[in-house]
Structures are given as C-alpha cells and as structure tokens.
Please model this.
Amino acid sequence: MGNIFSGNRGRTRLETDEVPSLSISRYRLVEDDTIVVKGERIALDRNPRYLGGGERYFLCPSCGRRRRRLFRVEGRYACSRCHRLQYPSQRQRGADTALRRFLAIKARLGAAPGLLSPIPPKPRYRHHASQRRLTLQLLDAALDACRAYALRNKSLDVLLARTQPTPGER
Ligand SMILES: [Zn+2]
Model:
C-alpha cells in the first residue's frame, strides 16, 4: 500500500542538494587509488594526460561509472543516478500550486474560504458522481500539497535518510 508519499502521481525523490555529497575537487591531489570516507572505500580513477597529472574521478561504488560527485543516502555513497536523486530544477509541482488547486476545488464544493473550513453537504443540483469526482480531486490536491511541502522543507525524507544506521560508522 505505501504511505501518502508513495501515491502514483508524482513521487517523492530526494534532491541532490538535500543529501551530503563528496566533490572530486577535494581529492584532486590525492595520489592513492582509493579513499576511505566514513568507513566506506571509494575508488578513484584518473583520465591520463600526456604530460602527467590528469583529471580525477570517483568510481561510483554502485555502478562503477566515473563521477565527479557522489551522494550519501542511507549511509552509502553512490552517484545521483544510482540513488535516483533528482536535481532541484526537476522539482515537479510546487506546494503553492497544489495548495491553490486545493483551495479552488474546495470553493467549487461550496466551502467557506480557508484551509480548514468544512466541506458542506452535496447540493441537490449536483450529481453524486460529480460530488465524488470533486472530492477525490480535493484529496489528490491535499496530498500533492503535503508532498511538495515535505520536499521544499527538506523535512521528512531527509530527516529519515539522516537517521538511518550507517554500517561501519562509529
Ligand atoms: Zn552509480
């Protein structure tokens, strides 16, 4: 079943700016082939250059691809793709949009303005099917607003991710 955040319209995915990350720029001068960060061994690769030196990369511990940035979710480092992170620009429906939609549908149902005003009984002229459709749309908008709010405030999922037990961490 899942919870309210696992509905099929729009999913809650962590965004790249919501989780701790490692940038290769910090390790540019490291000569070793691996580094150990928070108890996790991460391989480094080098793009050889003719005259020595060369660009360094992480090898994603999950897919093995060269990456300039790794992200830590649930105590594990991997690339944004492996963690299925989305970039902030990919953020879908904003909380404000969902909230406006919620209030508009409430108004169509005849409720007084305000978030918490009750929904009045179905008027005589409206079919049961229409009342039901509007009520479902209202519920949908409410869930969208909650989801978007949780994302924007970096709250629920991020707090959860940060409280995961970390294997190998003391
Ligand atoms: Zn990966």
Q: What stands out?
A: The pocket of zinc ion is lined by residues 60, 62-63, 65, 78-79, 81-82 (CB under 6 Å). Strands lie at 21-23, 34-37, 40-48, 54-59, 66-67, 69-73, 76-78.
